[in-house]
Amino acid sequence: MTGILKSYSNEKEYGFIKGNDNNDYFFHIKSLKNRQDISSLCTGVTLSFDQKVTPKGYSAINIVVDNKIVGCLLLTNKD
């Protein structure tokens, strides 16, 4: 599944993703497949993830950042 990063707290190390199914998915930083992607967690970045239903609601696991961001500016290839 894919979605857009809705919010993320560096201090609390968790955030929310708006899935392409319009549901909100909670995630913890430990759910990132590549910990180096932490610097790319800016609002609006596109993510791929697996969904998990928990007693508290929807969670995102195995998260991959689809587009890389530097300083929260989206990098696009304009060939």
Counting helices, strands and paired strands, the structural category is mainly beta
Largest sheet: number of strands, sense, barrel closure: 5 strands, antiparallel
- Compute the number of helices: 0
Total number of beta strands = 7
Mean pLDDT: 84
Share of β-strand residues:
over 45%
CA radius of gyration is 12 Å
Order of helices and strands: EEEEEEE
Share of residues in helices: under 10%
User: What spatial order of strands do you see in the largest sheet?
Assistant: 3-2-1-4-5
Write a concise synopsis of the structure shown.
This protein has no helices and seven strands. It has about 80 residues and is an all-beta fold.
Describe the structure.
This protein has 79 residues and is mainly β. Helices cover 0% and strands 52% of the residues. It is built from no helices and seven strands. The protein has strands at 2-9, 14-19, 24-28, 46-54, 57-65, 69-70, 73-74. It has a five-stranded antiparallel β-sheet with strand order 3-2-1-4-5, with no helix packed on it. Strands 6-7 form a two-stranded antiparallel ribbon. It is globular and about 30 Å long. It starts with a strand and ends in a 5-residue tail after the last strand. Mean pLDDT is 84; it is low at 74-79.
